[in-house]
Amino acid sequence: MKLYEEIEMFNSGKPKRLKVQFLARKADIIEALGQGNTRMEIWEVLKHQGSFTGNYSSFCFYVSTQINNQSPKVKKPKPMSTPTKAEEPAKQKNRFNWTPNYDPKKLTG
Question: What is the signed CA dihedral for 59, 62, 66, 68, rounded to 10 degrees?
Fold first, then answer.
């Protein structure tokens, strides 16, 4: 295979080639993100250079799956506090007063 054909195959926009293109520039992308560049800016540069032929959505997908999942941020659970009397909601009074004691003669007449 000629070098030109290999480059064309590498730069084709097929989805299976996009991951290869992304992984080839992964270190540069991580560095650029660390410098504060946005995904859009990085994608535009890579698109202009011809290093990544996919669309922005594909680029964001690979950033999310290949870079962000490497070091997931663990959220610390908030400590539970015991509610005080001021924080407890006031109990509403039941407005329906039903008594189970009734006179069946009054109901039937």
Answer: 70
Contacts for 98-102: CB closer than 8 Å, 24+ residues apart: none
In angstroms, the CA 3 to CA 82 distance is 69
pLDDT tens digit sequence for 52-94: 999 999 999 999 998 877 544 455 666 766 655 555 556 666 6
Predicted TM-score (pTM) above 0.90? no
CB 87 within 8 A of CB 61: no
Structure tokens given for 108: 């039937």
Separation of alpha carbons 10 and 21, rounded Å: 7
